[in-house]
Amino acid sequence: MEGRARGSLPFVGMIMVVLAQAGNMVVMKMAMSDGINKYTMVFYCNALSSLVLLPCPFIISRRSGSCPPFTFSVLRKIFLLSLVGFTSQMSGYVGIDYSSPVLGTAMMNLIPAFTFILALISRMEKVNWKSSSSQAKLVGTIASILGAFLVTLYKGPPILRSPIPPAAVQPRRLLFLFSRQSNWILGGFLLAAEAFLISLSYIGQAFILKDYPVVLNIMFYVLFFQTIFSGLLSFVTVREPQSWILKVDMGLIAILYSALVAGVFRVTLSTWCLKRTGPVYVSMFQPLGTVFAVGLGFIFLSEKLHIGRYKYSLFFSIEMPIPLVYNLESS
User: How do the domains of the chain map onto residue ranges?
Assistant: First the structure.
């Protein structure tokens, strides 16, 4: 009984990870619609996250005598992992700015497909095409890719309207679902790139954890390097001094949420679950974020459900439990 309870911890943990990720997309979109600069926002998020984790390397090195050595080879791998993570981060924020959180969570359905393919290429995942588990994973991979294209390219007529009239929702709040650039397809491709890079980071984390299985230390150095990358990018691209000034508004709330909940909490918990289960298992939970984002927009923000974008988003989110159940049965 105790072993089964421990085995369910990664399951519960990944649900919390995906909900935190979907909430982060919503909060970030609202902040960008409020006028905060996306580049300085990313810098402040990374800086605050790394500051929170700063004591971890010192505490762990003192308390854990069996802690493996932190070699230059490990540092180099973490540096590359942080570069992938930063590129993924920027692709996601720009993609959300061009589209919506609903599309962002829908495109995260690609992560299981990309992770499965990368795990096959890196020989982390073994496939027996005669087994039901491998067949389910293949079906899930194909469904994820098809769903991402349908959600991005096909909108369709509205099939449901929110019970809350549009006049009851503040116009500024409505902007979080409808981008000012209205470039849905470009946003979709940027979010697809984010999904691929997240999958690549899952594989990279799995390799690093084999050599250096200290989750909090890895997360600190990843966020530290991402702070440097985002600081350099912000210094080059942001010319207005007022863009660096933080105010007590939606931008500050978004930075705190992204740094503490979506940064420290989500990334650390996701890495812990990956250490316990592997990259393919972790990636299978991403479609749950679509259900959360669609429900939030429909119930609270007078969002219309279009037969293309949101029906297909929910439909292809349902494919998540199929390979997940087979994966649990085969493990």
Answer: 2-330
The more confident residue out of 59 and 231 is: 231
Asked whether residue 174 carries a pLDDT value surpassing 60, the answer given is no
What's phi and psi for 124, nearest 5 deg? -85, -20
Where on the phi/psi map is residue 156: left (φ > 0), alpha (ψ -120 to 50), or beta?
A: left
Q: In angstroms, how far is the first alpha carbon of the chain from the final one?
A: 17
Q: Contact, 223 vs 49, CB < 8 A?
A: yes
Alpha helix stretches (DSSP H) within 34-131: 38-52, 56-63, 72-98, 101-107, 110-121
Closest CA to 43 of 193, 241, 232: 232
Residue 100 has what pLDDT?
A: 75
* Residue 258 pLDDT > 60: yes
158: helix, coil or strand?
Answer: strand
User: 110-121 vs 132-153: helix axis angle to the nearest 10?
Assistant: 130
Q: What are phi and psi of 306, to 5 degrees?
A: -90, 145
The model's pTM: 0.79
Q: How confident is the model at residue 200 (pLDDT cuts 50, 70, 90)?
A: very high
Non-local (6+) Cβ contacts of 127 within 8 A are 120, 134, 137
